[in-house]
């Protein structure tokens, strides 16, 4: 190798080009056949090989069964998690065709499971509406499974076939007779692909299956977890109210109080396209919009969501003018004003859905914009005119939001003018670092002046800034934006980070690429962390989305024996260290960061070479949004249920 590098280094530029060209020839081109491409680059097909991609395998199979329900042939889907994290999915649809596909010379079911972009959803009369338009779902799951089995009940017989990592192990064979129809699939995710984990989370699957049941009124979906024979979990999801029940569920689970009794529900059908929306307004300040196309969650929105938002703003402004609720001199209501406190579900169905990517995050069909917009404008305007008391209550909420937004704008302008007149626009308690390159720097947001003092003395002044916080912080979940702007506890954070908040947020102005929350390891510290995370999530969400927010992990114990001392971050680690030291140790329990001297704080929590920090991520923004609403909202009951359900995950918390 060294000889080869020397030979190339000795060549002139022209010779170098020739040498490289000769080395990059036809034999360098690799052709991936069959399902090899899926196993080579699984992230292209399922998003990731982490927990999200693992659960996506189940979604792909269930989505095929849901497509049978959309076609009118399936009424029940059963999903089971078996010991060893084996998944089974059974439906009572038509069953995948088993006759020979002339083009491939194989049974149709074999083609569906071994050939990419093969299925009944590209044309013909198999499916008019489908979420699986890419035709890669079942074959991708097969490719990424250690083993995969399918049984098809069709034409009076039960057919079975088995695969290993996408390769056929047995031919399709008849194994019995039946009067029914349907498809049964059983598979185990391949640990060679999913190296992080192959363990499914029941709650994650339950959330997705519940969602599918809401979107298909009357469809019954059962989820059963049989991994622990002493603790079998099972739920049946079936909602005759469809997306109206969905909106009601969202409001109830988050403890939101609607400002009107009935949930608005509008539908329209135009040829082979249909749209429906369900709308409710609550007394909160955040908007919740869930959009779907052919039962696939469009997390990045798209044309259907665009049509909804445009029409909603028009309805409010036109209704306000028509009934003199908006005076001639009043400013028009903005989209944010009319969406404050909104819970809405948008569901469209169409034959040729255009999604961005296999994970289908955004709808691109332009014709859907007009369909949703016209339906919502016409029917919601009629609803407002027929229900003036509801319209007035919602309209007044939007007016209040508009006034609060205007007050916030003035507060921001005042803050800007004040900052421009001052020589230093940074908060007074901030101990800044000397390096001004954000890629190198980090800011510790520290609970209390005492801990802040230790952090200032113990830090690396070149790259670490310290901002102490004191007193009770504002819960932004219960406050409008005008209350956030100018709040004496939050303003120092906003000024120190430099990005602005809300509409003015600009990630390019971030002064530190690590924003570290450092609070005590007790209930009060947990509360401080939650308040700060709620603020970042609601008003500086890109900080979390782009991975700039961290949580410091200070130790719980200092264990000493003679001149030797070590730190422990859990009770288990404490016991292990005591045993390794031979017992009879002095143990100091840190009740707060202020109990550590600067050197201890540096050694345990701030030294980049030895510290442990948790990066805050947002794998599922919807789940995070719901959690913040439950924990920081007004209603006690949803919070109590959440705590009872999740208490098993919290160990040794000092109360």
What does this structure look like?
The protein is of the alpha+beta class and 655 residues long. The strands form five sheets. Strands 1, 2, 5, 6, 7, 8, 9, 10 and 11 form a nine-stranded mixed β-sheet that branches. Helix 10 (303-322) runs parallel beside helix 12 (367-386). Mean pLDDT is 84; it is low at 1-22, 24-32, 120-125, 420-424 and 649-655.
- Overall structural class, as computed from helix and strand content, comes to alpha+beta
Give the uncertain stretches in residue-range form: 1-22, 24-32, 120-125, 420-424, 649-655
Termini Cα gap? 63 Å
Strand content: 15-25%
The structural domain count equals 4
Number of helices: 22
Largest sheet: 9 strands, mixed
Any idea what the CATH architecture of the largest domain is? Answer: 2-Layer Sandwich
CATH evolutionary superfamily of the largest domain: Histidine kinase-like ATPase, C-terminal domain
What's the Cα radius of gyration? 29 Å
The gross shape turns out to be globular
The share of residues in helices is: 25-40%
Mean of pLDDT: 84
- What's the CATH class label of the largest domain? Alpha Beta
Instruction: Report the CATH topology name of the largest domain.
Output: Heat Shock Protein 90
In total, the number of strands is 24
List the helices and strands and how they pair.
Layout: H1 2-9, H2 13-23, H3 36-40, H4 43-46, H5 51-70, E1 76-82, E2 86-91, E3 100-101, E4 106-107, H6 108-114, H7 137-143, E5 145-154, E6 157-164, E7 167-168, E8 173-177, E9 182-189, H8 202-215, E10 220-225, E11 233-237, H9 243-254, E12 264-270, E13 273-281, E14 288-293, E15 296-297, H10 303-322, H11 335-339, E16 342-349, H12 367-386, H13 388-421, E17 442-447, H14 449-458, E18 464-469, H15 481-484, H16 491-497, E19 514-518, H17 523-539, H18 541-545, E20 549-552, E21 557-561, E22 564-568, H19 571-580, E23 586-589, H20 598-606, E24 613-615, H21 621-632, H22 636-646
Parallel strand pairs: 1-10, 14-16, 17-18, 17-19, 19-20
Antiparallel strand pairs: 1-2, 2-9, 3-4, 5-6, 5-9, 6-7, 6-8, 10-11, 12-13, 13-16, 14-15, 20-24, 21-22, 21-23
Helix pairs in contact: 5-7, 5-8, 10-12, 12-13, 14-20
